[in-house]
Amino acid sequence: MIQVGQTLPATTLMEYSEVEGEGCSLGPNAVDVVKATAGKTIALFALPGAFTPTCSAQHVPGYVQNVEAFKAAGVDEIWCVSVNDAFVMGAWARDQKTAGKVRMLADGSAAFAQATGLTLDLTGRGMGLRSNRYSMLVKDGKVVSLNVEAPGKFEVSDAATLLAQAKA
């Protein structure tokens, strides 16, 4: 499992864009993790799946509601990462009203989850290999803080916890 002080893996996530701009085309666009984190402070949180109850009712809304507080604490971007495809993440972004607040990034093949060692096997629930629920503060590609949830829990990866770490 990735640890504080380590660099995020050189992987690619996908982001669905509904609006053309800054060289981004409509539809899924590749996000090179190394390039996208360079020189930035990122509040990254990951969860098992889009449209799932805890993720939709508590996890994403907490970050959306606190976007200005994160910016005031020096965070450049907030990322939500899930093992879903870019089209599902795009639909979920519309549902959660994340535009301009939280980047909804797809880890379709679980490559990022596997490279960080933060996977969750939900095969028994019909969902296959997923991302564990966690949050991390990343500065210039390096993990500054990491909050990994116990299975079935939502206690340490919430927006309030990561925001307090960003302010510290």
UniProtKB/TrEMBL annotation:
EC assignment: 1.11.1.27
Family membership: Belongs to the peroxiredoxin family. Prx5 subfamily.
Annotated signal sequence range: none
Record's protein name: Glutathione-dependent peroxiredoxin
Source species, domain of life: Bacteria
Residues of the Thioredoxin domain: 2-168
InterPro entries with a match to the protein in the record: PRX5-like, Redoxin, Thioredoxin-like_sf, Thioredoxin_domain
Species in which this protein is naturally found: Rhodoferax saidenbachensis
Pfam families: Redoxin (PF08534)
